[in-house]
Amino acid sequence: MNTPESVSPESVSPESVSPESASPEIVSPEVLCRADGLAKHVTGPGGRLTILHDLSLSIGAGEAVAIVGASGSGKSTLLGLLAGLDTPSDGDVELCGERLATLDEDGRAALRAGRVGFVFQSFQLLPTLTALENVSLPLELGAITDAPRMNGSGPTGIAREALERVGLTPRAGHYPRQLSGGEQQRVAIARAFAPGPRILFADEPTGNLDLATGQKIIDLLFALRADAGAALVLVTHDQALAERCDRRLGMRDGHLEALA
Amino acid sequence: MSARFRIRTSAWWLALKLLRRDWRSGELYLLSAALVLTVAAITAVGFFTDRIERAMQRQGGELIAADLVIDSSRAIPETFADEAARRGLAIARTLTFSSVVLAGDSSQLVQVKAVDDTYPLRGSMRLKADLDAAELPTDGGPAPRTAWVEPRLLYALGAEVGTGIDLGEVGFTADRLIAYEPDRGGNFFQIAPRVMIRLDDVPATGLVTEASRVRHRLLLGGPPQAIADFAAWAEPKLPAYAGLLDAREARPEFESAVDRASRFLHLAALTTLLVAGAAIALASRRLVDRQTDAVAVMRCLGAPRHVLTRIFALRLLAFGLIASLIGCLIGWLGQQGLALVLADWFDGPLPAPSVAPVFVGLGTGLVALAGFALPPLMQLADVPPLKVLRRDLGAPKTSVALAALAAAAALALLILWQAGDFELAWKLLLGVVGAVAALVALGAVMVWLAGLAAARTRGIWRLGLAGLSRRPAAAILQITGFGLGILALLLLAVVRVDLLQSWQQTLPEGAPNRFLINIQPHEKDALADWFAERDIDSSGIYPMVRGRLTGIGGETVEPDDYEDPQAARLADREFNLSYSDVPQGDNEIVAGRWWAGPDPLPQFSVEEGIAETLGIALGDELRFWMAGREVAAPVTSLRRVVWDSFNVNFFVIGTPGLLAGEPATYVTSFYLPAAREALVPELLRAFPSVTLIDVGALLEQVRGIIEQGIRAVEYVFLFTLAAGLLVMYAGIQASLAVRRGEHGVLRTLGANRGQLLRGLLVEFTVAGLLAGLTASIFAELTGYVLARQVFDLPFAPNPWLWVFGVLGSGVAIGLAGTLGTYRALVRPPLAQLRAA
Q1: A133 interfaces chain B, CB cutoff of 8 Å
Q2: Nearest to B389 among A111, A143, A203 (CB)
Q3: Are residues B500 and B535 in the same domain?
Q4: In the prediction, which pLDDT does B642 show?
């Protein structure tokens, strides 16, 4: 794993955060996610609005990168583009070795299946499924799409293991509405890690939780990430949380800058 | 196992798993209820009409003395009897021909029927030892050299029972009087009296030669399937001069009543289908709204669109099959209830239903689901995965055109399938499409007006009216749903109160139960006096002229030219024509004009049904061969006749100037109460040449069908009622999620429960009034179309419909909507906001 120092860029210009402009020795041996000249515009009642301006960055395997910024700075939009949930107005993203611009919506979905995990601020658990079923879902979908990771124990077995790792085995049969916010986020983390992803995108994972619970969740997230060796892209406005990442990037008005 | 197969089974497996999870969560309850209800109504009626068909076949069998008859103008090839015997069917033969009997110096034209010992296969002959003796049922034909005769033959010959009569070269003893002959059928009006002899005696008489005009009949009896199989085998092999006759065609009065009852039942089932279809559409829309987040997460987790599409399609298919099977089961139970309600329709228990309605039920369920639910559910796959990050991205916009097209196609298919009648199907479809379009258009206008009004009002009125205009699409959908529900309930009232009553009135107490035929011209006035003296009302004494149809519009009529066996028979047999200055009271001119003035030009008026069967159009010249000369005149009007009224009616009526010169007998019908039965022998003694036909039993049977049919229709309408309530519930539920959020915000901002409750009451009451107004307009229109175009019944607008339709729906929906959403209101605001 890279040390925080090894991935800190020297300058604060957007270009400088890309591995290309950083010192060669600090570049991760494998780049999992790379953005190049990324821009996003939307057209609203007041005309064209630019949300992201010409960003470039790259994230290496196993690297934890925090994207920090105020509300409306464009960090969630960036996360959506990096994960292939949205398409940029300009520029390109390469994820797990594939250029997203060359893939259609289904291609991007297939790329995510089993390789990319998500943790959201609002948990995004399916209310009609139990904790165990929520964790099984990506594995079951992966079974259909022939996603890379499917071992012999089957979706339910893997899901049980994942729930055990987050300490929720006794709550496996509970529905989201029967779980506390912290428990729901633990289920979401178990779901994110169950397929063995190579990269995890987390969008304000503690945003809906109190401080103590949030702390526990982050501890769990980082511990599981360390076990899995997965890269992490963490969107947060919490500086303390960002401090735990290898590298911190700041978003302001759609511009990305490296933070110390 | 190949990878592809594995993927397929996994998709099935996951689809079933998701279905099970959806069910557990309660998301599918509404959709299931709507679908189960639709299938149950369709299959209940399907099972039941299937059983009726079979029972009619059995019961009607009595009217042709068999289950199936091959009717032929020449000898029937032996292959048919051989094949019937090979299939284990019971066989009887009859031969009918005209001849003259001699008794002493007297002679009389008679209709001879020769039968074998197995005749009749269904029903039995009833004979009397003399005019005053009791009727005794008899099996088998007459003994050798004996004859059974109609009483009027003996009168005409001046003979007694036991007298010897000569038929051709053989002498017979007129042994018994015929009181009832099962397969006399619709041929009431044959002029010559009946003589029945043994088939074995025919050759000795020397009356039947190659050139004789003889009617051969091969009577067949057996289980329904065996009969149906034989009919299917025989139909294509029959020579042009022969035709198949089954029980349904034997008695138009009976068939007409059962047919109408069956139409009512199908209509009730179709109404359920239409209304439940709206509930299915509303419930699907709600399901889509509630599943949007789940789909976004699944797409985010890497499920490609095609996989989701496949999973949704499989899930819907599995759901459709399961719900439809449950619907079939409920339908089967429902028809058991229906069979109990109608236990007295037929003698003996109803035959068991076939399995065919199960397939109809399954097909209906799947087609309804495909039409109403598939388009919105399939569009779920279009939910952008970005929605997991941006909640403001709503559910994908359903293509209104696609949804409407799919629903219309499904409806058209189902209506056509159910109604089995293209005209009824397109009228109904047009009516439904028109009603929905009008409901949507009126809903849009009214929501717009509510928005305008909201800006000018204050307090709860503003809150309520703004509730309508704030979510225009949801409000329009809701008003349409309410409108359809109310429409179903009002239609139920229209059909129950107006149409069924009209049907009942076609056969009031005192409807004629006796026909008198062969009244001679000189007896007409005396008979009228006889009726008047005894205070008996007749339906009128009408002249009847016999004639064979020889030409239509310049073309010669040949029975063999008609493919339809019924048309061929009609063309082959003699018509009973009448003449009159005025049309009969219960006849209605549907095309052209009845003749006016004291001495109109020669012309004919034809019953519309037979005109259609024989291809007679207005303006065509009809030629009849009557007593040695040809009579020709154009058709200037078509009439609609209520056949099950039991009044005397004629297919063809001419102007008096055209037919009055022809030899005629007279015919009438009248009502004789059971208490005055003693008048019958008196009448027959006073007018010995007339033939009295007792249709009391048939009349009671038809009346029973009408009364029990009405109960059956009411029973099936319970499904419609349930569907109507369901669609309204679905309408209320449709906006619950959004409403929950809004109320959470409003209460957080300080609105109290009372204010919100009154706001809701205003919103739902106004929506109910608007829906009720539109529904009342359409219920009245539909009632008119059904009465006039489908059921041939008179129609009178019902003012109460408007009172109940508009005010009733305002009150009912106002209360139901408010109570239905109240639960969401009593929760703490934070819980509402979270649940939204």
Answers
A1: yes
A2: A203
A3: no
A4: 74
